[in-house]
């Protein structure tokens, strides 16, 4: 009997058995956040190539959005393959593909080092230019911070932005982050910039009037270094 492409499992479904974190799913009123899988990568590359920021502004420490299209594409692919391959309970990076009505709109990242002891996470994100200015950045940050505090057991969430990245700083302020010092860093060859560090603790978190939905945590707690974690309402 001939097997068509429509009957084959997605890469996410096929690999979930071996990498349970791929079954994690967060939901907010408008968005769905799930770990980036190979099923997402072609769409993710297209979103990045369509534009993330104005050409005369660089909001990232690594200028991954600059270069020939093929170079940007290879960089996006390599980053996501590398972060998945290198993740261990003591040091992990979790890029979450953010979708609105099924359409990929950006990435919300969560990362930590020695999380089982430090209970500290760092957030980072980007949105395709066509999806900016609609409150999506604030909603996805709210969702991932709720997940970190209420489900992973984090006690600190860190972030940061260059001082001229006003959009990112506004999102952080809406969520409740407070300044946590600055540092001068190299932005471009020969050009310095001020990086504003930010800190959020559960008592300062400006919670929205909704709760993030969480599915699949029971199976992947060990990936975060906390195998005792369970899904909401379970055990």
Automatic annotation (TrEMBL):
* Gene Ontology CC, one term: cytoplasm
The chain positions of domain N-acetyltransferase read 31-201
Is the keyword Transferase assigned to this protein?
A: yes
- Which terms are listed as keywords in the entry? Transferase
Which Pfam families does the UniProt record give? Acetyltransf_3
User: So which domain of life are we looking at?
Assistant: Bacteria
Question: Which is an annotated GO molecular function term of this record?
Answer: protein N-terminal-serine acetyltransferase activity
Q: Which InterPro entries match?
A: Acyl_CoA_acyltransferase, GNAT_dom, Ribosomal_N-acetyltransferase
Q: Which PANTHER family does UniProt cross-reference here?
A: RIBOSOMAL-PROTEIN-SERINE ACETYLTRANSFERASE
Q: What is this protein called?
A: Succinyl-CoA transferase
What species does this protein belong to?
Nakamurella endophytica
């Amino acid at each position: 009997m001939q097997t068509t492409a429509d009957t084959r499992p997605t890469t996410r479904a096929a690999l979930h058995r071996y990498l349970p974190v791929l079954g994690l799913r967060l939901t907010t009123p408008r968005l769905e956040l799930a770990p980036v899988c190979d099923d997402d990568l072609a769409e993710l590359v297209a979103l990045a190539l369509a534009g993330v920021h104005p050409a005369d502004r660089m909001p990232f420490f690594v200028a991954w959005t600059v270069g020939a299209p093929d170079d940007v594409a290879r960089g996006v692919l390599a980053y996501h393959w590398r972060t998945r391959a290198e993740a261990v309970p003591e040091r992990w990076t979790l890029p979450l593909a953010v979708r609105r009505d099924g359409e990929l709109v950006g990435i919300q990242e969560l990362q930590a080092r020695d999380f089982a002891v430090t209970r500290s996470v760092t957030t980072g994100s980007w949105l395709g230019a066509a999806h900016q200015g609609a409150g999506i950045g604030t909603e996805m940050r709210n969702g991932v911070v709720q997940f970190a505090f209420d489900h992973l057991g984090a006690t600190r969430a860190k972030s940061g932005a260059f001082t001229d990245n006003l959009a990112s700083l506004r999102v952080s302020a809406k969520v409740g982050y407070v300044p946590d010092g600055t540092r001068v860093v190299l932005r471009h060859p020969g050009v310095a910039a001020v990086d504003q560090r930010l800190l959020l603790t559960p008592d300062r978190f400006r919670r929205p009037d909704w709760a993030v939905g969480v599915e699949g945590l029971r199976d992947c707690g060990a990936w975060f270094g906390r195998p005792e974690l369970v899904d909401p309402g379970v055990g």
